[in-house]
Amino acid sequence: MTDVPDLAIATRKVCFILSKARQFDGKEGMTDPDSGSNASDDGMIDVLEDDGNDPVQHELRSFINDLDVDEQIELVALAWLGRGDGTIADWSRLQADARYAHNAHTAAYLMGLPLVSDYLEEGLSLFGETCEDFDAE
Fold this sequence. Notes:
- The protein has helices at residues 11-25, 55-66, 69-83, 91-101, 106-111, 116-126, 132-136.
- By secondary structure, the chain is mostly helical.
- It has 7 helices and no strands.
- The longest helix has 15 residues, at 11-25.
- It is 55% helix and 0% strand.
């Protein structure tokens, strides 16, 4: 059995990102161009539209950008692990690949992965971690 390495990024931070990514992924394109001024008049569908002024998107981008470089690298490696780009035994290689690929666009890259929340959740589970305690809060 392979020893499970330690994560340099706190599970709580990954769970926050995962939660915000799920909220962001739930958004869709403009579906109600003639929106009423009262949300109850249009069935509250505007809340699911991504109009570029989404506070969740800004919060998620800002949170990822505020992580230190090592945490950003771990986050990308964790997403790749959860996506199936390697196993826990390949963790050092995934970290090295993420370090090599690191640039100033980590948030944009991760937010552009359609299933990033699922990948992060799966990656965490391979480390024996879960967001259950975080979700309970």
